[in-house]
Design goal:
The complex is a heterodimer of chains A (264) and B (263). Chain A is built from 13 helices and no strands. By secondary structure, chain A is mainly alpha-helical. Chain B has nine helices and nine strands. In chain B, strands 1, 2, 3, 4, 5, 6, 7, 8 and 9 form a nine-stranded mixed β-sheet that branches. In chain B, helix 2 packs antiparallel against helix 9 and helix 8 packs across helix 9. The N and C termini of chain B lie far apart (67 Å). The chains are: A mainly alpha (264), B alpha/beta (263).
Chain lengths: 264, 263
């Protein structure tokens, strides 16, 4: 496609360059302070590997949870008309803008041992989420699921509903239509939402440390390990882990733009 | 704008600038006519939150030209911030180890002075529902015990306490500062946590303390120092002197800290 050539606006270009530098310089700072020589040693440290493994497991599990619960929620938001729908959408996407630590406190008050739902569950089963790996997954899902819901809802709204109607007139049941027609059509949005949710879950810190706590192997994910490393003056280890997260997230975002936003 | 008002505005701005420049105009604190001014950033261990806030109010009341901002966090967090060039005037640590990092890094302006001591206590939920009476009770694996992370002073001290009691404890979490331990116990998520005696006191009725006998306990030393990055040395000195002086010591004692000199 041939695009009309835009006249160059120097003011906009300079401001854009400033904006780009604003994002690039912190990364450059990280790269500049990276102790490359000790990178392998740090990455093979058992504690670091524990944190990385836990990060992978929990972020994937919370993405799964986000898909199982988030797709139906997006469907309800996109397709059903009912009073309070806007409020529901606002409530379920609130964690995107809420400080994660507030999310963590709210989760404690709901699912903690003395929480609204947590207290009766703890009373009946003796189980509670804080300080456990499932607690990390809950915290990550709380923060990450809205990204999936928003992407899938947008996909459902922009989809041509006549395909569903056609399938229904041909005798397909509701569930078959959803599975065979709707899901494939929103595939790209679902994938984009899932990847966004996954990368948000991977980077989750505030809700996790507040709700699930911080213990190596159980609840200490990579972002928590970075923070604790910084606290105990182990800057090299913190920088290496940070850089790893940056590279992974950047790869995901670049791939995502190319693949799903139809760019180049 | 009315032209005649410009000079007023200018002089007001100049006055503001002068006030903002703090230490430049400051004189050595004369005991009767306090003229010190400047804005101070005090980086202090989380366990000092209540006591230092009170002291800050008193210093500001006595020296109205001195404005004080506090940044309370775990001591290692503060050390990292100082090492990375965070502009601070004063650092108060909950142990000597973290203070030494600042001193050996050449970041201290003065020699650190110990201004308070503290003891550890077991914080339990009010009413002590799990009937915890001693450190060795914490070895019970069905109890959820919360501690500070290794490297955070209260975490290091907790390890010492468990060692002296001859027990192994697997904590449920390692918190970034002592107040987080207190919160987890106060919310009922943890059954017990190792905190400072002063934290139990400051938490009011939220938690209850179980004393740790002296032979198992640790005496935490709190050193304070002026930082090289200070822009208002006279004001910083005024604050440190106040903390070490009779009035500061009284506030610290009110919040349960032990005096700077151990008798």
């Amino acid at each position: 496609m041939v695009r009309p050539v835009q006249p160059l606006n120097p003011v906009l270009v300079v401001l854009a360059a400033a904006a780009a530098l604003f994002f690039v310089l912190p990364l450059a700072g990280l790269v500049a302070r990276t102790p490359w020589a000790s990178a392998l040693g740090i990455l093979s440290d058992p504690q670091v590997q524990l944190a990385l493994r836990l990060s992978v497991i929990c972020s994937l599990a919370s993405t799964g949870l986000a898909i199982v619960l988030g797709v139906p929620l997006a469907w309800v938001l996109a397709r059903l008309r009912f009073p309070g729908r806007s409020l529901l959408r606002g409530l379920t996407t609130l964690p995107m803008v809420l400080p994660p630590v507030v999310g963590g406190v709210a989760l404690l008050l709901a699912f903690g041992r003395r929480g609204l739902l947590g207290a009766p569950i703890a009373g009946a089963t003796g189980l509670s989420l804080p300080f456990t790996t499932p607690g990390v997954i809950v915290a990550e899902s709380f923060v990450a699921m809205p990204f999936l819901v928003i992407a899938v809802e947008a996909g459902l709204r922009s989809m041509d509903v006549r395909f569903e109607e056609a399938a229904r007139t041909l005798g397909a049941g509701r569930w078959t239509v959803f599975r065979r027609v709707t899901l494939p059509l929103i595939g790209p949005s679902l994938a984009a939402g899932a990847v966004l949710a996954w990368s948000r879950a991977l980077g989750e810190f505030g809700a996790t440390i507040t709700f699930a706590g911080n213990f190596p192997g159980t609840t200490q994910t990579a972002p928590l390990a970075i923070y604790i490393d910084l606290e105990s003056g182990q800057l090299p280890s913190a920088v290496i882990l940070s850089l790893l997260l940056v590279v992974v997230s950047l790869a995901v975002l670049v791939a995502l733009r190319g693949r799903y936003l139809g760019e180049d | 704008m009315v032209p005649g008002r410009v000079p007023v505005l200018v002089s007001a701005t100049v006055a503001l600038l002068l006030a903002g420049c703090g230490g430049v105009a400051a004189q050595p604190a004369a005991s009767s006519t306090p003229q010190v001014s400047g804005s101070l950033t005090v980086l202090a261990a989380a366990s000092l939150t209540q006591a230092f806030t009170k002291i800050g109010d008193q210093v500001h009341a006595k020296y109205p030209g001195v404005d004080i901002r506090f940044s309370f966090a775990g001591s290692p967090t503060l050390v990292t911030q100082i090492q990375q060039g965070a502009p601070g005037d004063i650092f108060a640590s909950a142990d000597q180890a973290n203070m030494q990092k600042v001193v050996t890094g050449g970041l201290a302006l003065t020699a650190p002075a110990v201004f308070a001591h503290n003891k550890l206590e077991i914080a339990v939920q009010s009413g002590n529902p799990r009937h915890i009476t001693s450190v060795s009770d914490l070895a019970n694996p069905s109890l959820k015990v919360d501690v500070c992370a290794p490297g955070v002073p209260c975490g290091t001290y907790s390890t010492t306490v468990f060692g002296r009691a001859g027990i192994r404890v697997t904590p449920v979490s390692q918190e970034q500062d002592v107040k987080s331990v207190l919160t987890k116990v106060g919310l009922g998520e943890a059954d017990a946590g190792i905190v400072y005696a002063t934290d139990v006191k400051s938490a009011g009725g939220q938690v209850q303390g179980v004393a740790i006998p002296d032979d198992q306990n640790v005496t935490a030393e709190y050193p304070i120092v002026e930082l090289k990055t200070t822009q208002s040395e006279p004001a910083a000195k005024t604050f440190v002197d106040y903390v070490l002086g009779a009035q500061g010591q009284k506030v610290l004692a009110d919040f349960g800290f032990l005096p700077k000199a151990t008798s």
